[in-house]
Specification:
- The complex is a heterodimer of chains A (about 475) and B (about 100).
- Chain A has about 475 residues and is of the alpha+beta class.
- In chain A, about 35% of the residues lie in helices and about 10% in strands.
- In chain A, strands 4-8-12-9 form a four-stranded antiparallel beta sheet, with helices on both faces.
- In chain A, helix 2 crosses helix 3 and helix 3 runs parallel beside helix 11.
- Chain A starts with a strand and ends in a 20-residue tail after the last helix.
- Chain B is mainly α and about 100 residues long.
- The radius of gyration of chain B is 17 Å and the shape is elongated.
- Chain B starts with a helix and ends with a helix.
- The chains are: A alpha+beta (about 475), B mainly alpha (about 100).
- The interface between A and B is medium-sized, with 31 and 30 residues.
């Protein structure tokens, strides 16, 4: 005899439905896990998993004319030559304005410029190791331990360095092999202090004197890595609170670089680092060649993992490494349609052109590649006015999202697969991020005072698992 | 945990729907299940992305996706409801005529 159950179900029907319910509960998280697992493809990038919508290519999505490209000198950027480009008088006026504004806003307790913001900015610049081009002399090589230098295939070396760098604090890691006809041109001709960067056939060890930094020709590989930044502090651009983002990342990298020099030295190899921030080589270009991201309308690197919210660093070594390939994730193509960064740039420094061009907008950029060149003097002048650095262009970029939502993975995959929907995706970004900074005033996306109340942010403000387990 | 709760809610809701239909002699044709399944998927997506975007500290985007997935989900749910009502209403009308 069948027993009647609730809702007029027989026992057999009830048990059947219970089984279906169990299967549903089991399959729901399984489906999610399966989607996360299939979202990565380690075959394309053997040294670090990347999202499945990232494809490797033989050449970057930015066109390069290697014959026209020459080695560039870092001091020619507006970091080193702003006064030359805008005139000494304007430079002096802007410096005075910067000092005056910072002092005034500190006393007014202006959000983003108050004493606590200044204190955070100050703190972020501390506790970092000394930077040096030449590896520290104190490093004890394997000879001190009575063993030979580490030996392995270039692939093994790349995997080993990636593992070490991830442990030391890097986000993504790539490798570029130096070729005098191509990639060697991405190493600066002169560093920020105007010291000449010389490749030497005879030098056995990196050297530095008053005029030169000497790179032995045996060092043919560049290790390139990103360090992610806090999206939330970045959103407070352009304020002192925002500058604590970049300040912390540069400090972090000084430690990463120092430790990487020790790691390579302990293996029996040399690591030539940045003697100061932005030295050694063109970071976005090397990052692009290493496949860490693509060049963009920002004329900076946008990575699939963190969008523009990361910084790129590099080191030259004689440890033979297997190079990684450039990538195509549809980023440069999307930038042709999007233009959000240019629209929201308060100084109107970024390009509005639909297509990248070979023509630079000033001597602060290196010719020989097709890019969305910016008017760097406008950008720098604005930095002086607001008293600190900016970064609004980074925060309004649709790729600056944290990619926890399905929509972001879907958008990234769609942008990578076809440019047909790029304009629709841009409209979506406009609707989803309508509170973006006032293009005229340069107001921050996030009130710095609100940031001080966000007590549940990840350590250092970014998800360090991204690039490994999340899309 | 979030997915376990959603799975439980969907399972219980599905069980209730099946039991209710059976107890009331309501037949649900195969083509009515299509908008039902799509609506459930869209509601699940809305819940998933809403919570994800709140976790991303993007409340405006969270509100947007709630409408972006939720409104079409609601429309599909109404279509499914209408279809079920229409399917089960017709025999009654036919019976009245005879």
């Amino acid at each position: 005899m069948e027993v009647e159950m609730a809702f007029s179900l027989t026992r057999r029907e009830f048990l059947k439905d219970l089984g279906l319910l169990g299967a549903g509960i089991t399959l729901a998280p399984g489906a999610v896990a399966a989607s996360a697992a299939t979202d990565w493809d380690n075959e394309k990038t053997p040294f670090l998993g990347r999202p499945s919508w990232v494809t490797t290519t033989s050449a970057p999505t930015m066109e390069i004319d290697w014959d026209k490209m020459q080695r560039f000198s870092e001091w020619q950027t507006t970091r080193g030559s702003f006064a030359t480009y805008v005139g000494a008088e304007r430079d002096k006026r802007l410096t005075a304005l910067q000092t005056e504004n910072l002092d005034k806003w500190l006393k007014q307790n202006k959000p983003g410029y108050s004493l606590k913001d200044r204190a955070l900015q100050n703190a972020c610049g501390q506790g970092a190791a000394a930077q040096s081009f030449v590896p520290p002399k104190e490093i004890q090589g394997p000879d001190k331990l009575g063993v030979a230098p580490w030996k392995g295939t270039p692939e093994e070396a790349s995997m080993m360095v990636t593992a070490a760098l991830r442990h030391l604090g890097a986000g993504t890691v790539g490798f570029v092999e130096l070729d005098p006809r191509t990639t060697e041109k991405l190493i600066y001709a002169q560093d920020p202090d105007k010291k000449e960067m010389v490749f030497s056939d005879t030098a056995k060890w990196p050297e530095e004197n008053d005029k030169q930094r000497i790179i032995p020709k045996s060092a043919r590989w560049v290790i390139v890595w990103t360090i992610p930044m806090s999206q939330e502090t970045m959103k407070t651009a352009p304020t002192v609170t925002c500058s604590a983002t970049t300040g912390l990342t540069y400090s972090e990298n000084r430690n990463v670089q120092h430790r990487l020099q020790y790691f390579l030295g302990s293996l029996g190899y040399m690591g030539m680092g940045e003697y100061s921030t932005n030295a050694l080589g063109i970071a976005p270009a090397l990052g692009t060649m290493a496949g860490l991201g693509e060049m963009s309308r920002l004329n900076r690197l946008i990575s699939p993992e963190w969008g523009p919210i990361n910084r790129v660093f590099k080191m030259i070594t004689d440890l033979p490494l297997a190079p990684t390939k450039p990538i195509n994730a549809g980023i440069m193509q999307f930038c042709k349609v999007c233009k959000r960064c240019a629209e929201y740039c308060p100084s109107k420094a970024l390009s509005y052109d639909t297509e990248p061009t070979w023509n630079t907008r000033g001597p602060w950029s290196n010719p020989g590649h097709k890019a969305f060149f910016e008017d760097s003097t406008k950008c720098r002048a604005y930095w002086r006015q607001v008293g600190t650095n900016c970064g609004i262009c980074f925060t309004v970029c649709p790729f600056a999202s944290k990619n926890m939502a399905f929509y972001h993975s879907f958008r990234n995959a769609l942008a990578s697969a076809t440019p047909v929907f790029d304009s629709t995706l841009k409209i979506m970004a406009d609707m989803m991020m309508p509170s973006a900074a006032d293009p005229e005033m340069g107001n921050p996306l996030l009130d710095p005072e609100a940031w001080w109340k966000k007590l549940d942010l990840p350590i250092k403000g970014y998800n360090s698992a991204r690039g490994i387990s999340e899309a | 945990m979030w997915w376990l709760i959603i799975g439980l809610v969907l399972g219980v809701a599905g069980l209730w729907l099946a039991s209710w239909a059976r107890s009331k002699n309501v037949s649900i044709k195969w083509y009515a299940w299509i908008p039902i399944v799509l609506a459930v998927l869209l509601f699940a997506l809305a819940a998933m992305d809403y919570s994800a975007m709140i976790a991303e500290q993007e409340p405006t985007a969270a509100g947007f996706v709630l409408g972006f997935y939720g409104i079409p989900g609601l429309v599909l749910a109404l279509i499914a409801g209408g279809l079920v009502w229409w399917q089960n209403k017709k025999p009654a009308v036919a019976a009245k005529k005879s």
